[in-house]
């Protein structure tokens, strides 16, 4: 009984981190039809910026995190205009090549700026303590991660399903020509969506830094994980990403508790199984 | 075959050339190490330390200029290491090889250095078998056995009788596990569980929970330095193993390049290792002083001191034998000197360094920086993986 609860808590926390980082990827890949392999790079830039603001300049964590997310969004906006706009029109292979090139640019920049060693993030003292739940003591940090993950899932659902912006976004995605004929500024809608995705990745990178430590090679190290979450969940589906991240997080954690010698094989086995049965992902729409 | 004949020809020419010319020449040393990618930090530490050594001891021996040439091996990449070694020997005409961060990269050049009779000085690669693969390997770095077994004996003396080992599931991790276990059981202790963790794990909570359930006196860990050591120590604290009375025992987990990131959470962690920049000796002061003067942003650690001592071994070989490879290897056997890490010597049998192993504790220095403070010394430890008396 105790073990099951442990697995659940650790698995859910891990799943939430995966969700926060990959949901932006799911939105840009599914809704905007661009294969953005540089997405993990925004998570890393978020982590690197919070390291710079928090550890090197000594700004308190929450403020530093907000500044870092702001900085990543501020960087993503011109990047969308200059770099990504031509990429939308490319074929799939060209998109992969172009965005992996952007990933290497990001890696090299962080390497030059802050070096290739681990970039630490100082959490406020209140976050680093443990909460005693009786059967085990739980790191405060994980509870915060779970809470923020749930809030983001809810917020995104409302934003895309219930707001005027969401309607415009879905219209622009389904038929860009008609949408712009109806007076929707599709360029601006895409710009805002891209910035939102980058900001969410930065948030995930910052909050997840205790589980997925940030260094210059972060985007390459974890890229496969983020892509798997999106693939298993189904592109463009927020609920799908949420379920996939949660399921894979719990599965990976369970395997580590029970059969650590097998490594991460179960993670990949289940991925293969799901994609074999549902190639479009759990909740993905047929193309 | 063609390459091998050329190798022989080149080395023969080199020897002949040396005998013929009495004047000054440049003796080149080829260093193969990662200077790009996730492990680029090794290349940086190596070249900074070699530079410091040359700044202190000069760049000339008997009128001959010593030049270090660096080649990027990337990560674990034996084929690349082998072709770089060939290129360095044939095209650049290097007389000595050095570097090697990873065991597979070192093993890949064994045949080549045998044929060209080029001494190769290992700056890091730390599994025991390497020096047995070629007569021309000399290793002034360390092995996992060398630092793990003393930790086991010391821990047992402290009254720790039950330990869980948790290591990363790859060569060095398994060396550390067997080294610790052999010594700990020989001392009379029990290893109640041995956990091998996947190489790409960064969430260690499950393993910590498992350790907690076993309730041993201590957990002995080995992980490759970087993100995973950081996450492991975090998980040790977050799951409050210390509060549950489970001591942390490790080797390089509190390496100086990640120590700052760990913050105060690392205070009190105990490890056994062959070098701490906080080691108090005039040699260490000289080394660190020069290193910081040349590179104010340098972080001295085990990799820097290993390259510094590696440069010393190369200098001594050149002083004794010039560019005659076999004579240089003979000269290095039994070599003794005082390194920044303490008194050391090269074992004539294994060509591996015999050195002190220190038990350290993470503490704060006068300026409030985290350091590994050495508080106990186990003297003159050989490579226990080869000279095994358990």
Describe the structure.
The complex is a heterodimer of chains A (287) and B (390). Chain A is an all-alpha fold and 287 residues long. Chain A has a single domain, classed as Orthogonal Bundle (ABC transporter involved in vitamin B12 uptake, BtuC), CATH 1.10.3470. Chain A is 75% helix and 2% strand. In chain A, strands 1-2 form a two-stranded antiparallel sheet. In chain A, strand 1 (130-132) and strand 2 form a beta hairpin. In chain A, helix 1 packs antiparallel against helix 11. The longest helix of chain A is centred in the first third of the chain and has 31 residues, at 2-32. By secondary structure, chain B is α/β, with parallel strands linked by helices. Chain B contains 14 helices and 15 strands. Chain B has helices spanning 2-20, 40-57, 78-90, 103-108, 110-116, 130-133, 144-157, 171-186, 205-214, 227-238, 256-262, 282-294, 302-321, 325-332; strands spanning 26-33, 60-61, 64-72, 96-99, 120-122, 137-138, 162-168, 190-197, 218-222, 247-250, 270-273, 336-339, 342-346, 353-364, 370-381. In chain B, strands 7, 8, 9, 10, 11, 12, 13, 14 and 15 form a nine-stranded mixed sheet that branches. Chain B starts with a helix and ends in a 9-residue tail after the last strand. The A-B interface holds A 3, 6-7, 10, 14, 111, 115-120, 122, 128, 130, 136-137, 139, 141, 210-213, 215-217, 221, 252-253, 256-257, 260-261, 263-264 and B 37-41, 169, 195-203, 205-207, 209-210, 226-227, 230-231, 234, 238-240, 243, 257-258, 260-263, 265, 299.
């Amino acid at each position: 009984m105790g073990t099951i609860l442990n697995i659940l808590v650790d698995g859910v926390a891990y799943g939430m981190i995966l969700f926060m980082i990959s949901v932006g990827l799911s939105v840009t890949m599914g809704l905007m039809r661009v294969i953005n392999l540089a997405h993990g790079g925004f998570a890393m830039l978020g982590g690197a910026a919070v390291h710079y603001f928090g550890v090197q300049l000594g700004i308190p964590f929450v403020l530093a995190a907000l500044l870092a997310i702001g900085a990543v969004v501020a960087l993503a906006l011109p990047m969308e205009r200059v770099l990504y706009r031509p990429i939308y029109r490319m074929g799939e292979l060209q998109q992969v090549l172009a965005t992996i090139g952007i990933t290497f640019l990001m890696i090299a920049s962080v390497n030059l700026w802050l070096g290739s060693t681990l970039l630490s993030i100082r959490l406020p003292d209140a976050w680093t303590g443990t909460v005693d739940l009786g059967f085990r003591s739980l790191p405060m940090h994980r509870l915060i991660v779970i809470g923020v993950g749930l809030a983001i899932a809810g917020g995104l659902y409302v934003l895309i399903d219930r707001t005027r912006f969401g309607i415009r976004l879905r219209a622009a995605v389904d038929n860009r020509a008609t949408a712009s004929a109806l007076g929707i500024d599709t360029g601006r809608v895409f710009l805002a969506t891209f910035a939102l995705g980058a900001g969410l990745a930065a948030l995930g990178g910052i909050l997840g830094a205790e589980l997925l430590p940030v260094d210059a090679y972060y985007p390459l190290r974890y890229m496969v994980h983020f892509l798997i979450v999106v693939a298993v969940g189904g592109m463009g589906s927020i609920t799908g990403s949420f379920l996939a991240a949660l399921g894979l997080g719990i599965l990976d954690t369970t395997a580590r508790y029970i059969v650590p010698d097998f490594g991460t094989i179960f993670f990949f086995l289940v991925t293969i199984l799901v994609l074999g049965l549902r190639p479009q992902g759990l909740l993905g729409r047929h193309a | 075959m063609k390459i091998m004949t050329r190798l022989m020809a080149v080395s023969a020419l080199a020897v002949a050339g040396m005998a013929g010319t009495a004047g000054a020449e440049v003796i080149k040393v080829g260093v193969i190490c990662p200077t790009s990618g996730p492990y680029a930090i090794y290349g940086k530490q190596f070249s900074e330390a070699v530079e410091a050594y040359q700044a202190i001891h000069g760049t000339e021996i008997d009128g001959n200029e010593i030049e270090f040439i660096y080649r990027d091996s990337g990560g674990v990449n034996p084929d690349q290491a082998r072709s770089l070694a060939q290129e360095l020997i044939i095209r650049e005409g290097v007389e000595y090889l050095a570097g090697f961060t990873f065991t597979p990269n070192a093993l890949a050049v064994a045949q080549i250095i045998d044929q060209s009779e080029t001494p190769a000085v290992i700056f890091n690669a730390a599994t025991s078998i390497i020096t047995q693969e070629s007569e021309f390997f000399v290793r002034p770095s360390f092995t996992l056995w060398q630092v793990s077994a003393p930790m086991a004996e010391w821990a047992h003396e402290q009254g720790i009788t039950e330990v869980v080992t948790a290591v990363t599931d790859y060569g060095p991790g398994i060396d550390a596990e067997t080294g610790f276990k052999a010594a700990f059981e020989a001392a009379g202790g029990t290893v109640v569980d041995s956990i091998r963790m996947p190489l790409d794990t960064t969430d260690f909570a499950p393993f910590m929970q498992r350790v907690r359930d076993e309730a041993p006196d201590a957990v002995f860990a080995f992980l490759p330095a970087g993100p995973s050591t950081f996450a492991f120590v975090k998980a040790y604290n977050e799951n409050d193993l210390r509060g549950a009375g489970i001591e942390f025992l490790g080797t390089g987990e509190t390496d100086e390049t990640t120590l700052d990131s760990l913050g105060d959470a690392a205070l009190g962690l105990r490890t056994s290792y062959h070098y701490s920049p906080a080691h108090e000796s005039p040699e260490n002061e000289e080394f660190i002083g020069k290193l910081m003067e040349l590179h104010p942003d340098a972080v001295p650690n085990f990799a820097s001191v290993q390259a510094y001592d590696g440069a010393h071994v190369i200098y001594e070989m050149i002083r004794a034998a010039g560019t005659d490879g076999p004579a240089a290897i003979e000269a290095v056997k039994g070599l003794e000197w005082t390194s920044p890490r303490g008194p050391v010597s090269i074992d004539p049998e294994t060509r591996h360094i015999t050195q002190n192993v220190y038990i350290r504790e993470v503490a704060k220095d006068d300026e409030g920086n985290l350091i590994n403070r050495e508080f106990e010394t186990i003297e003159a430890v050989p490579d226990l993986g080869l000279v095994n008396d358990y």
